[in-house]
Amino acid sequence: MAGPRTPTVPDVPVAPWKRHIVLQLRQRDRTQKALFLDLMPAYNRLLEKAELLAQFSEKLQPEPSDVTPTTHQGPWEEESGPDSGQVPSPANLRVKWQEEEEGLRLVCGEMAYQVVEKSAALGTLELELEERQGRLAALEASAAQLKEARAGLTEQVEAWQALNAAQRATYDKLREHAGLQEVALRRLEEEARDLLEKLVQRKARAAAERNLRNERRERAKQARVSQELKKAAKRTVSISENPDVLCDGVREGAETVALATPPESLESEACEKWKRPFRSASATSLTLSRCVDVVKGLLDFKKRRGHSIGGAPEQRYQSIPVCVAARLPTRAQDVLDAHLSEVNAVRFGPNSSLLATGGADRLIRLWNVVGGRLEANQTLEGAGGSITSVDFDPSGSQVLAATYNQAAQLWKVGEAQSKETLSGHTDKVTAAKFKLTRHQAVTGSRDRTVKEWDLGRAYCSRTINVLSYCNDVVCGDHVIISGHNDQKIRFWDSRGPRCTQVIPVQGRVTSLSLSHDQLHLLSCSRDDTLKVIDLRVSNIRQVFRADGFKCGSDWTKAVFSPDRSYALAGSWDGALYIWDVDTGKLESSLRGPHCAAVNAVAWCYSGSHVVSVDQGRKVVLWH
């Protein structure tokens, strides 16, 4: 039997579902033909055997005249032994044939039953095979799509790698160029410092020489005056109370003595001596002391980083006026949902009427405190991430914010867009504060660095590497204080390269607050305590605790009151706690509008208002 013909597939593209149906039809044709191909040969063999048996039976029927016994023994004669000489009768043969036929029928029935069972099993297997083939086709199509996508992604990766390699090469070149420029800059700075030192020394030498000449001149004048006084003392002089006749008395005395000097010269000399003012030793010493002060003023210059000499004195902001006695807040005057998400930072401006808040919605909002209410002033946009810290400069004209975008940003009050971006950290910036000198700031980050910035050029002037995350920083005159995750507070001299002091505290430091006189430091830590550190003796003076007080996060902020009489902090349950710094006792606790953990608090410089912000978007003004 000829095999199935393979249909020719046209070159025209066929839809996938049509191709699938054609494959199923071909498969069913093959399976049905295979069943009949197995069954027909068996049936043909059975027919051949039946015909052969019929022929044997016809041949074995004896004729009446035939008495010759047949010696042929068929295969069906099972019961006749080999030594049997008798030929079976046709009746016996017919019986045997019937039995054989019945056996063959039974065998054929069993075979037919087995064929049906095998056909059913084969049908089940064919259905399963078709299902698996369908799934295999779907998987093959999906694998083809994935291969295509993988090829596309591989091309993109190769393109990005090539671009990255080009950018890395460019970055290496720029870095090398920057290194050369930095070396050249350092060399020029060293030359400038050397020239400045030489200039200062030359000026000092010139001033010393000039002072020496002046001193010699004064001594000569003093000696001449003393000689003239001695000469005048030898003359007889009548002193009158009337100053108009003083010269006449001198003239008369001169005539009485009758010296060799002519009368007119004596008269004029005496009058000039008494009228001319002379310098005493005290006057001379005063002039010398003033010259020494001038020299000291020339030599009294600031030492820069690395103990180098030179440069003009740093420009400082004017001091912020601070109230004499702060007022304890007692009630909430205004409650606002200020941001779209939690509020992380709050700060009062120097004039106590402007307030800044920063939140996780990447916005800084400015508020005016008017009549016990918060009125929206301005929204500062352009931050690259969540705001973690906000600070006003002492003039109140600029706002500095730390963000999660590995940078700090600078705004000018009145302008909505960011003025400068201080980038250079490699992790979240947790704190950003202005220094007391103009155009300088300090930032702390979770990348274990503290950076000093020149805001005039948006340039990092110094990087301090620390062993732990920095959570907050504050700045004094010449000191930078940083609080860290390893339960330590570190002190850095802005004029020196190393850490000057380390004060350990219990718990991770979450915030620092420096008093206005720069003599006391307030720290808040995750052991649910506030500590007052006396910077004069570098010792912990007070430790504040309270039942129910608990830090809500690693960035919970606590502050001094403007007069340093009280310490204020917010708790995880939305309450505010106020301690008396002198006695160390809990002065009061305020509860009310906050339903979430308080992240930060601020006390205005006039001492009249307190503002708190929480994780539930609320800003509360207390009076």
Question: What attributes characterize this protein structure?
Answer:
623 residues; alpha+beta; Methylamine Dehydrogenase, Chain H; four-stranded antiparallel β-sheet; 5 helices; elongated; ATG16; Autophagy-rel_prot_16_dom; cytoplasm; Protein Atg16l2; coiled coil
What does this protein look like?
The chain is of the alpha+beta class and 623 residues long. The protein has a domain at 332-622: 7 Propeller (Methylamine Dehydrogenase, Chain H). Helix content is 38%, strand content 27%. The chain contains five helices and 30 strands. It has a four-stranded antiparallel sheet with strand order 3-30-29-28, with no helix packed on it. It has a four-stranded antiparallel sheet with strand order 4-5-6-7, with no helix packed on it. Helix 1 packs antiparallel against helix 2, helix 2 runs antiparallel to helix 5 (281-299) and helix 3 crosses helix 4. The protein is elongated, with a radius of gyration of 56 Å. Residues 20-211 form the Autophagy-related protein domain. It is found in: Cytoplasm, Cytosol. Pfam families: ATG16 (PF08614), WD40 (PF00400). Residues 59-90 are annotated as: Disordered. May play a role in regulating epithelial homeostasis in an ATG16L1-dependent manner.
CATH superfamily descriptor of the domain at 332-622: YVTN repeat-like/Quinoprotein amine dehydrogenase
CATH class of the domain at 332-622: Mainly Beta
Q: List the strand order in the largest sheet.
A: 3-30-29-28
Mean pLDDT score? 80
Given helix and strand content, the structural type is: alpha+beta
**Strand proportion:** 25-35%
- Please tally the β strands and state the result: 30
Radius of gyration: 56 Å
General shape: elongated
Distance between the termini: 106 Å
Helix tally equals 5
**Helix fraction?**
25-40%
- Spans of at least 5 consecutive residues with low confidence: 65-85, 239-313
CATH topology title of the domain at 332-622: Methylamine Dehydrogenase, Chain H
Please identify, by name, the CATH architecture of the domain at 332-622: 7 Propeller
Biggest beta sheet attributes: 4 strands, antiparallel
